[in-house]
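A student in our group prepared the protein record below, which I am reviewing. I have pasted the whole thing underneath without changing anything:
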Amino acid sequence: MLGPVLLAASRSAAIRRIVSAAPVTRPMVDRFVAGERLAESLGAVRSLTARGLDVTLDHLGEDVTDRSEALRSRDAYLALTEALATEGLAGRAEMSVKLSAFGQALPGGHDLALANVTPVVEAAAAAGTTVTLDMEDHITVDSTLAILGELRTRFPQTGAVLQSYLFRTEDDCRALAGEGSRVRLVKGAYNEPASVAHQDKREVDRAYVRCLKILMGGEGYPMIGSHDPRMVAIAQDLAHRLGRKLDEYEFQMLYGIRVAEQERLVAEGHRMRVYVPYGTDWYGYFMRRLAERPANLTFFLRSLVGRR
């Protein structure tokens, strides 16, 4: 299986240089990333919302190595918030943030990330939009959920992501299934050890369904982050059986993936939110997308070999 290899490669500086230099890379990146500049991402938002889709925007960047980079991430999101408000897009577009981009992995990183993300959440609330905290690898979960708790004391609309492949996630779902909570449930896209995460796809899927039942049966707002047709169908069935209205949950999918399915869900009256990444630091995100989809990986590797 090349998936785990690619997940490890997503944090390799040497492989990053090779992939970034390959001529075939740019067209593949363009499929998954809305652009490198803020203006390009806003163009993608306008196009998507015109088709009835909602958006969550991710300014790419993670695992920052110094405090100045963390401040640049904060400032990029503040500029994004201002642009959404100015363009009248805040009602249809929220933001997703990785706390490692705000300094979480640096010395004193928990407090640093909280200090850097707080003004972004404040600005988002003032603009009429929201922020969701993306989840990264398992060593960050406790810190991320603690920061979520701090933020929700003032901004209860702040959302979080939970990953079904982690053994702990069912308990985390129970803790976050209360009124006002917003949770995006995904399967998980990091290379986690067997001591903390399911390794078999079928077990990950079963865990996803168990977590989905908890969230859909709770009082919060579930966000179903999956491209899996079976998971989408199960979520629809649960919503129907539990009497959830169409505005009491939403589906989320990645930019450039299963576009026809996104539009089908909108046509059926569902809220469908597209995760739109942008920025120059696209490498880690791109490699995780290749690891998730064997067809994309096969195409990319064949093209890479053919060009070299």
User: Anything to note?
Assistant: The first strand starts at residue 54 and ends at 59. The mean pLDDT is 90. The domain at 34-278 is CATH 3.20.20.220 (TIM Barrel).
